[in-house]
């Protein structure tokens, strides 16, 4: 019986329960793509979570949640890890433990074809109407808005930002390159109709976050991420979805 117990224990030790990995269900391509029928969910976030789990010798189960529920679920231990997240976006960053920085969120400026976006630090904002995401703060642009030298055109969705350019309600838009790529994925002909800035408007490092009571440790996560960076897997993953790794 002792031998049998030992064998079972060894097997259990080799196969811990799958990692419960939270994803924002509202994020579309390239981050999270909902499968249909027998098709599995996919996207950058799914591949990223799976790659980290493999480095930790664990399986991974994706748990899609509404944006407002993801962070509380992580704090309460209902999910174990959340990636492509930043302390500056969290409501309770001190209740979470954070990995090393990994894939950045990069915002770029978009203009209609033939228009001028400018490049950092010489953006073409003066006298322009700029389509922005409702509720977001843009420190570089705000002084021009306050001085009446630029006009803020708030939209609730990325598609509406692009629509603002199409109907000449705005001259420029600012959004993340992931969301730009997502729009072009859904609207393939639009790629040739817009100019995207070569340089970044803003760069926000993102991390993986775990709850304070997680069975994972930051040290383990950092080792896993370091291996993915050193092997080039992270950079290849980002490029596959039209995004920058740094």
Task: Give a written overview of the molecule.
- This protein has 246 residues and is of the alpha/beta class.
- It folds into two domains: 17-103 and 206-240, Periplasmic binding protein-like II (D-Maltodextrin-Binding Protein, domain 2); 105-202, D-Maltodextrin-Binding Protein, domain 2, CATH 3.40.190.
- Helices cover 32% and strands 24% of the residues.
- The chain has eight helices and 13 strands.
- It has helices spanning 2-14, 44-55, 67-75, 142-146, 158-166, 177-186, 218-230, 233-240, and strands at residues 19-24, 60-65, 81-85, 96-98, 104-112, 118-119, 122-123, 129-133, 151-155, 172-176, 194-196, 202-205, 207-211.
- Strands 5, 8, 9, 10, 11 and 12 form a six-stranded mixed beta sheet that branches. Strands 2-1-3-13-4 form a five-stranded mixed beta sheet.
- The longest helix has 13 residues, at 2-14.
- The chain is elongated.
Number of helices: 8
Beta-strand residue percentage: 15-25%
Instruction: Quickly give the structural class.
Output: alpha/beta
Global outline: elongated
* Overall helicity: 25-40%
Whole-number mean pLDDT: 90
Alpha-carbon Rg, integer: 21 Å
CATH class bucket of the largest domain: Alpha Beta
Task: Outline the low-pLDDT stretches.
Answer: 1-12
Counted up, domains total 2
Q: CATH architecture of the largest domain, please?
A: 3-Layer(aba) Sandwich
- Within CATH, the superfamily of the largest domain carries the name Periplasmic binding protein-like II
Task: Summarize the biggest pleated sheet.
Answer: 6 strands, mixed
SS elements, strand count: 13
Distance between the amino and carboxyl termini: 54 Å
């Amino acid at each position: 019986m002792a031998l049998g117990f030992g064998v079972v224990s060894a097997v259990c030790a080799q196969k811990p329960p799958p990692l419960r990995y939270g994803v924002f269900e509202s994020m579309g391509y390239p981050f999270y793509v909902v499968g249909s029928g027998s098709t599995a969910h996919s996207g950058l976030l799914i591949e990223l979570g799976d790659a980290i789990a493999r480095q930790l010798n664990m399986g991974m189960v994706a748990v899609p949640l509404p944006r407002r529920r993801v962070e509380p679920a992580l704090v309460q231990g209902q999910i174990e890890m959340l990636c492509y997240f930043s302390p500056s976006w969290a409501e309770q960053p001190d209740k979470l433990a954070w990995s090393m920085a990994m894939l950045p969120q990069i915002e770029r400026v978009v203009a209609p074809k033939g228009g001028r976006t400018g490049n950092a630090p010489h953006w073409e904002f003066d006298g322009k109407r700029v389509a922005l995401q409702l509720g977001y703060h843009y420190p570089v642009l705000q002084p021009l808005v306050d001085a009446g030298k630029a006009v803020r055109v708030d939209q609730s969705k990325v598609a509406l930002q692009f629509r603002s350019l199409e109907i000449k309600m705005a001259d420029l838009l600012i959004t993340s390159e992931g969301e730009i790529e997502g729009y072009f994925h859904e609207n393939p002909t639009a790629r040739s109709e817009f100019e995207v800035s070569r340089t970044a408007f803003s760069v926000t490092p993102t991390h993986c976050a775990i709850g304070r009571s997680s069975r994972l440790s930051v040290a383990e996560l950092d080792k896993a991420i370091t291996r993915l960076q050193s092997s080039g897997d992270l950079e290849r993953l980002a490029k596959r979805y039209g995004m920058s790794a740094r």
